[in-house]
Amino acid sequence: MKPGIPKGTRDFSSTEVARRNFIFNTIRYAFELHGFQPIETPSFENSSTLMGKYGEEGDRLIFKILNSGDYLNKVDNELLASKNSTKVTSKISEKALRYDLTVPFARYVVQHQNEITFPFKRYQIQPVWRADRPQKGRFREFYQCDADVVGSDSLWQEVEFVQLYDAVFSKLNVKGTTIKINNRKILSGIAEVIGAKDKLIDFTVALDKLDKIGKDGVIKEMLSKEISEEAIEKVQPLFDFTGSNTDKLASLKAMLSDSEEGLKGVEELTFVINHIAELGLQTATLELDVTLARGLNYYTGAIFEVAAPKEVKIGSIGGGGRYDDLTGIFGLKDVSGVGISFGLDRIYLVMDELGLFETVALPKPKVLFLNFDEDENLVKMKAINELRANGIKTELYPDVASSNNQQKKQWKYVDKRGIEFVVTSIKDGKFKFKNTQNREENDLTIKEIIKKVQ
Amino acid sequence: MKPGIPKGTRDFSSTEVARRNFIFNTIRYAFELHGFQPIETPSFENSSTLMGKYGEEGDRLIFKILNSGDYLNKVDNELLASKNSTKVTSKISEKALRYDLTVPFARYVVQHQNEITFPFKRYQIQPVWRADRPQKGRFREFYQCDADVVGSDSLWQEVEFVQLYDAVFSKLNVKGTTIKINNRKILSGIAEVIGAKDKLIDFTVALDKLDKIGKDGVIKEMLSKEISEEAIEKVQPLFDFTGSNTDKLASLKAMLSDSEEGLKGVEELTFVINHIAELGLQTATLELDVTLARGLNYYTGAIFEVAAPKEVKIGSIGGGGRYDDLTGIFGLKDVSGVGISFGLDRIYLVMDELGLFETVALPKPKVLFLNFDEDENLVKMKAINELRANGIKTELYPDVASSNNQQKKQWKYVDKRGIEFVVTSIKDGKFKFKNTQNREENDLTIKEIIKKVQ
């Protein structure tokens, strides 16, 4: 039997865990610095909590858990004979694995509304599961890192989230990210202006290709999607949508002058963009991107997406936005929310490609005591305890070497794990201490070793 | 629709997450200090990896994941009509949630044997799932914290694990734990001496009641289990099994003098007990407990179990032992392993009962800037950025207060979250800074605030 794991899942080696934890810890630190509090929810929820929240496609991608015991006993014979998998599922499965962190969070807020102090700034770093077709950078089990505020519609939150993205990526040394921002109300304004709400997606998809196929190409595509020439004429400014964010805002303001909602969107964006300009960012750039339309049916205000530094070809490494009725699905109305998410796996790939993991300390002992003579071990173990009491990661090689070959094996272990300091033997109450980097050897007391290593 | 979660699962509030992380971080720190490296494995494994590894009862308690898509399509009609849940399961479910960390670890070692440097000291802190009947302290989703060494049969590992238990519980301030130790070979020796291997469990179960029902009661129970009077006579010393570990070892040595395996067990225990006596423990006590028989069919050498301090009535808070053929089930023979586990939920209950969470810092901002005047917010946000750059958790209350009532709401928020320092307003370039503990108020510059807070 050759052991393996399900496709789309991964084992993580010590090095990978250390690197992932470096990212997690950086995000967690920034979340807490910005006033977010952690919560955790169960890995599986009642199916009724999840089903129907992510559309038909989402329902299909949710991993369902089989009921325990004699689960077929109560299923109707006829239904079973029909072999209708979807209908049978609802009879034999009551629980399902979390698909994202947003729906469980909404459920949490409603369920615990009396214990929560609003506005509630929560963060959550947990895995989610999707029965998606695995491909490069897409897995069936992966982590999401979400921060959301519920119970406040202050635009200062949007300002803070831009700063939070900048803070995390700067701390990770991922320089040159682009934080794209848009507003659902601007998209609605454009829909109003072109006179066809149902064409909005076609419109933004076409507009998004401006860089690639040019103005003429975009207009051609729009016409083919039955967007009228008249409508296209009205949004003319979008085809020369370059320049600073301020230029873009001015151009939008003029274009959307007939749409109340559109102008509200411009006003909101102006607030965020101007305040960020005042406050400054460390390494990121904030860019108004009117083609940004992720989760169109979901967001009601700001929409965010973070693009990796230009030298790395990869999709977005984060995203989010404002949604005005997160908890409505669970019966708590009028709670506004806004949040962002970090894509751990994509960030990992970016950092790996940029060589940013070199400084991440690997989980290995700082000092290894070799085990060449059983009679020395008790004294060595006492010394090891002293090093550990001083916070120094220390190990005794477990098995005693009774031959030259076995001694070589221990030196190989030192080499393979890249251990910096080694104690070989004891002489006259002093330890033979070797620096494997510069090959320096000294006879030291335990106090001297501690000093040298720290 | 009233939202809820599946029975046996839990939501964790910020306070609970902070406390749990305090325990996790303490364990993780000690694991790394003692030379263990982290790995992580997927939440679900192929069913074939897990099924049959935990006995019939275990198989029943494993959560199975339904195949995706039209999973009923390929199932034989007749089989389906038979409504045999167990047989149908193997046709409609190929994956299952991890039941413990040991089997996935064994699978990991075999799968990655060529990348691993042996002896391999790994730790793993991840949740596991069991479809058990939920009760106090028993959940369907819970964390295990395991440290194991594979590829070494040195008894120094056993010594180290006793020290590791002591290090973790001392660091957690859980004083007065009892680390019970036994050895499977001693149990085998006893079985040999009483001439009935199949009676070993009955024997140890009865012996375990010595404290409660006295010598006569125990003998009566043994006789009722058809353990012969002659056998009972032979193990007479076990009925007066008090005194120091050294006394107990001497008594075992005499009693098991005819059993080679038993004597080997005594020798191994002597090694661990004597070395721990030399090295000393911080707050735990090591106690030879010959009735300790957990996982009898699994362990081959040392057996560990940790009892909580006597003032807390709760089961074991950790356990482990040596198993000589962990990876054999996956085709890699002759790899000896030894490991221990920490029971997070039980430890949490113990610490809660002993009031040991008081010092755990809650995830809340150190400084809150109240939001009474929108015109002040940009200057406040600049100040907040400076505080954050100095590592001080700081927040701006999101929504501006435009009435007395809304100002009160902000003060209530300060109170509810127990925030220590508050900035109310700005005057002549200085911040009105209030210490909510001693009610002291000062007009300070941002540099002065940083100094005061740090």
From TrEMBL, chains A, B:
Molecular function per GO: ATP binding; histidine-tRNA ligase activity
GO biological process: histidyl-tRNA aminoacylation
Domain Aminoacyl-transfer RNA synthetases class-II family profile per the UniProt entry, residue ranges: 1-363
InterPro entries: aa-tRNA-synth_II, aa-tRNA-synth_II/BPL/LPL, Anticodon-bd_dom_sf, His-tRNA-ligase, HisRS-like_core, HisRS/HisZ
Catalytic reaction(s) noted: tRNA(His) + L-histidine + ATP = L-histidyl-tRNA(His) + AMP + diphosphate + H(+)
Enzyme type, top EC level: ligase
Residue sites binding L-histidine per the record: 100-102, 130, 144, 148, 294, 298-299
Pfam families reported in the protein's UniProt record: tRNA-synt_His
Quaternary structure note: Homodimer.
Protein name (Swiss-Prot/TrEMBL): Histidine--tRNA ligase
